[in-house]
Amino acid sequence: MGRKVLADEQVKQVANEIKRYLQKCPTASDSLHGITGWWLERQRIAENIRIVEKALQNLKDEGFIDERKNEHSSSVYFLKKEIEKQF
Predict the structure, then answer these.
(1) Residue 1: its pLDDT value, please?
(2) Is the sign of the CA dihedral 23, 29, 33, 39 positive or negative?
(3) How far is CA 41 from the centre of its chain?
(4) ∠40-45-49 over CA atoms, to 5°?
(5) Rounded to whole angstroms, how far apart are CA atoms 87 and 82?
(6) 29-67 pLDDT, tens digit each
(7) Looking at the predicted structure, is the pLDDT value of residue 2 above 90?
(8) How many domains does the chain have?
(9) Most C-beta atoms within 10 A of its C-beta, which of 40, 41, 55, 87?
(10) Cα→Cα distances 67→42, 70, 77, 83, Å
(11) Mean pLDDT in the chain?
């Protein structure tokens, strides 16, 4: 029974992801493989970017990593020298 509940929750989660995608792109249409590989993956990447951004800010706030801008004005993150010496 536990696996069925897990599977049901996963189905609901995926259904919600598809709904969110279609709300953003109401004229979209695709095959099963296209939806799996394109729609859902794009949703997850966008969510992961927000999560990683917060995690990086937390690590900066803790003094574990630092940030600098590269030539394209993108942030680049790296282990602080003081922390590196501890390893």
Answers:
(1) 54
(2) negative
(3) 9
(4) 150
(5) 10
(6) 999 999 999 999 988 888 889 899 999 999 999 999 999
(7) no
(8) 1
(9) 40
(10) 26, 10, 5, 14
(11) 89
Backbone angles phi, psi at 86, to 5 degrees: -80, -15
Stretch (H or E) spanning 67: strand 65-69
> What radius of gyration do the chain's Cα atoms show?
19
Structure tokens at 74: 């993108």
d(CA 11, CA 2): 14
Tokens matching residue 48: 């992961």
43, exposed or middle or buried, with CB in 10 Å at 0-12, 13-18, 19+?
middle
Query: Which tokens go with 81?
Result: 């020298």
Structural domain range at position 28: 2-84
